[in-house]
Design brief:
The complex is a heterodimer of chains A (372) and B (88). The two termini of chain A are 12 Å apart. Chain A is mostly beta strands. Chain A has a four-stranded antiparallel beta sheet with strand order 3-2-1-27, with no helix packed on it. Chain A has a domain at 36-211: YVTN repeat-like/Quinoprotein amine dehydrogenase (Methylamine Dehydrogenase, Chain H, 7 Propeller). Helix content of chain A is 2%, strand content 39%. Chain A is built from two helices and 27 strands. Chain B has 88 residues and is an alpha+beta fold. Chain B has one domain (2-83): Beta-grasp domain (Ubiquitin-like (UB roll), Roll), CATH 3.10.20.30. A five-stranded mixed beta sheet of chain B has the order 2-1-5-3-4, with helices on one face. The longest helix of chain B has 11 residues, at 28-38. The radius of gyration of chain B is 12 Å and the shape is globular. The chains are: A mainly beta (372), B alpha+beta (88). Chains A and B meet through strand 6 of A and helix 2 of B.
């Protein structure tokens, strides 16, 4: 099986693409759009070629670029994601697109985007034009789910879109202000999916909505299983149950279960990885104790083991943001992370050993692995 | 009537490097739409979907800061677009 892999890296000041035929020696392409804020770059698995990039440039408005030649040339969307015009005093304008998601395998050309302020957008023509998904963006409960004053330091987010591989009508979204929502009808209607998920910043710490869902991982071999890294812990749900279980309680107490990302093993639904960060006190969001490590479960969250070989043993305070930790689908699985200090780290043995393959990039926002 | 729109450096990728675009318009909004017809995508980088100038962007007509792009312009006016390239 070919080990050829590429890493699509978005940073605060441009994009880079790392490519390798063997996951050992890496070639670097870039910078691409130097100085632009690149939140996310994704390759279309349906054609194995198209790259879609969410970009913003300083104070210029947000847009989306696509490339069909490996990132050599890029074409801007004719109509980037935007909310419908409104006379309301609180009329929304997209600050930036944060997440781009290829549509279901049965729908070539369909793409979805999540934005800040929280908004869901769809393209049916390969990213040329984008439309507001009014089923969410104009939902009667929208302002309850996505209040104006809610959100992260860079603005409230609709930060992820997950599509059930068995059913294009069944999707999940993660938001920073309302938690997880689910649709069974292709986005026309939505319902919260947050039972048992803590939101310790409310008087009622287990509300129907209001959670901060950092990341969802749907298991490819068991799409009824979802893992969630939340602002308040690590969770798992096995559908059709709608009640999450806090599997992060099994993490070492001194590490805690706060982080941005959770990854599911592409072939084993019991295996997942997290990269914990310090969520104590004032939330430093650094590697706990200055000692970076990945934690892995191989029993669906009943227990976790530390994987830190190769990482600095001390005085390493980097942070890995929510889109900057990813896995490939190779055997053994490769894991990759990009740090806020501009370093790129990888493991080609499912987290057993780590090595630095890149450094001195701008602050890394996203790393996405794709077949080359 | 003809007005000139001065294009800041960070938007000249849309105008093939042109520093000024002359268009026929009677309002700022009409001028920016006319520029966008010729150079698609430029307007949205400056004006959001609600018709508001984006934060930290500035639109001047001659030497006067324009707070509403629906304001009228006169023949020979110069519309300046500026982006505050702040931050580290």
């Amino acid at each position: 099986m070919s080990q050829a892999t590429q890493l699509l890296i978005g940073t605060r000041k441009g994009a880079w693409i790392y490519r390798s035929d063997d996951r050992k020696a890496w070639r670097v392409q870039g910078p691409i759009f130097l100085g632009h804020i690149i939140n996310h770059i994704v390759q279309d698995p349906r054609d194995g070629r198209t790259l879609m990039m969410a970009a913003k440039t300083g104070h210029l408005g947000p847009t989306i670029f696509r490339s069909h030649d490996g990132g050599e040339t890029w074409t801007e969307a004719a109509t980037p994601p935007a909310f419908p015009p409104s006379d309301a005093a609180n009329a929304r304008a997209v600050s930036h697109s944060f997440w781009v998601e290829p549509g279901h395998a049965s729908e070539p050309g369909v793409w979805w985007a999540g934005a800040s302020p929280p908004g869901l957008f769809r393209s049916a023509d390969g990213g040329v034009t984008w439309e507001s998904v009014e089923g969410f963006n104009a939902h009667p409960k929208y302002w309850d789910w996505c209040p104006e004053d809610g959100g992260t330091p860079d603005g409230a987010l609709l930060n992820q879109i997950v599509i059930d591989p068995r059913d294009k009508d069944h999707m999940y979204i993660a938001t920073s202000t309302g938690g997880v929502f689910e649709t069974l009808d292709y986005g026309r209607s939505w319902a919260p999916l947050n039972k048992n998920v803590e939101a310790n910043f409310f008087p009622d710490p287990y509300p129907e909505y209001g959670q901060d869902a950092h990341y969802l991982a749907l298991c490819a071999t068991n799409p009824d299983r979802l893992y969630q890294q939340n602002h308040c812990g690590i969770y798992r749900v096995d559908r059709p149950s709608d009640a999450w279980t806090r599997i992060g309680k099994a993490m070492p107490e001194e590490i805690g279960d706060i982080g941005f990302t959770i990854l599911a093993h592409p072939r084993d639904a019991d295996t997942a990885w997290v990269f914990p960060m310090d969520g104590s006190d004032v939330w430093p969001r650094t590697s706990p104790g200055g000692k970076p490590a990945v934690y892995r479960t191989q029993d669906a969250g009943q227990s976790w083991s530390r994987q830190d070989q190769g990482f600095p043993a001390e005085q390493a305070w980097f942070t890995v943001k929510r889109q900057a930790f990813c896995a490939d689908a190779q055997t053994p699985v490769g894991l990759y992370l990009g740090a806020t200090n501009g370093e790129v780290w990888m493991s080609d043995d499912e987290g057993g050993h780590w090595r630095r393959i890149g450094a001195h990039l701008p602050e890394i926002y996203s790393v996405v692995a794709a077949p080359l | 009537m003809t007005v000139a729109v001065a294009i800041p450096q960070q938007l000249r990728s849309y105008t093939d490097g042109a520093e000024r675009v002359r268009v026929e318009a009677t309002t700022i909004d009409a001028a920016l739409r006319a520029v966008d017809e010729r150079h698609p995508g430029l307007r949205f980088r400056v004006i959001d979907e609600q018709g508001r100038v984006r934060p930290h962007m500035r639109v001047f007509v001659n030497n006067v800061l324009a707070r509403d792009i629906r304001a009228g312009v006169s023949p020979g006016d110069e519309i300046y677009l500026f982006g505050a390239l702040s931050g580290g």
